[in-house]
Amino acid sequence: MPSIEIATLALILLNVVVTMKGFGDSRFFDRYKFQVGAIKARQWDRMFTSGFLHVDNRHLLFNMVTLYFFANVVIYAFGDWRFLLIYGVSLFTGSLLALSFHRNEPYYSAVGASGAVTGILYSAILLQPDMTLALMFIPIPLPAYVLGILYLLYSIYGMKTRVGNIGHTAHFGGAIGGYATTLVFSPYLLQTDTFIVLIMAVPIVLMFILERLGKL
After folding, report:
1. Residues 82, 87, 90, CA angle at the centre, nearest 5°?
2. Which of 4, 11, 78, 182 could form a disulfide with 123 if both were Cys (CB 3.0 to 4.6 A apart)?
3. DSSP string across 95-160
4. The pTM is what?
5. Where are the transmembrane segments (predicted)?
6. In the chain, domain spans
7. 136-165, pLDDT tens digit by residue?
8. How far apart are the C-alpha atoms of 209 and 211, rounded to whole Å?
């Protein structure tokens, strides 16, 4: 089990405290969740505060466990502050993409750290593409970048079909934030891991092409 760094612990504690407050106070939850109409009415803070609320304990646990397992890769590469910046940028880009895709749905709402956590995950994969990962429904270990690409392709499918009660756009936007910020901090990856950088960009480019063609 990886040791837990102070920055990771701080994020987990903040998520737990805000989420528990939301569980016990529906007015608090409604005021700080992501909601298109409210954000367009200039409640911009929801772009960030929504990322610390969760719908239930399972939702919270899944996001925090994922953060715990991948945070160290990013922290060891960049340090605490850049790790926190990647988390924040990913949270924002996740909310921004969700706002863009659902701009004509004033009652569309969402909560969760999934966008930020997906950004950390995508950053970790860029930094250590030789990691092997396995999911419950794919029990065979695969290169991390393969699973990262498959996950974003599934997110595109989810964005198109709206399958499940899942914020696929926020997940995808978070991945974009983590990908871009990691390359800003480590531009050498464009030379040392050119293939990985390019192939992990394929789902991102595909998403923008499909959106441009009106297919999403």
Report:
1. 120
2. 182
3. HHHHHHHTTT-TT-EE--SHHHHHHHHHHHHHH-TT-EEEETTEEEEEEHHHHHHHHHHHHHHHHH
4. 0.94
5. 6-24, 60-78, 84-101, 108-127, 133-157, 169-189, 195-213
6. 6-212
7. 555 677 888 998 899 899 899 988 887 667
8. 5
**Distance in angstroms (rounded) separating the CA atoms of residues 153 and 155:** 5
CATH class name, domain 6-212: mainly alpha
Judged by phi (left if over 0) then psi (alpha if -120 to 50, else beta), residue 79 lies in: left
What is d(CA 66, CA 58) in angstroms, rounded to the nearest whole number? 12
Quick count: other Cβ atoms within 10 Å of Cβ 20? 13
> What's the CA gap between 129 and 144, in Å, rounded?
6
* pLDDT tens per residue across span 60-92: 999 999 999 999 999 999 999 999 999 999 999
Amino acid 136: pLDDT: 52
Cα(212)–Cα(216) distance, integer angstroms? 8
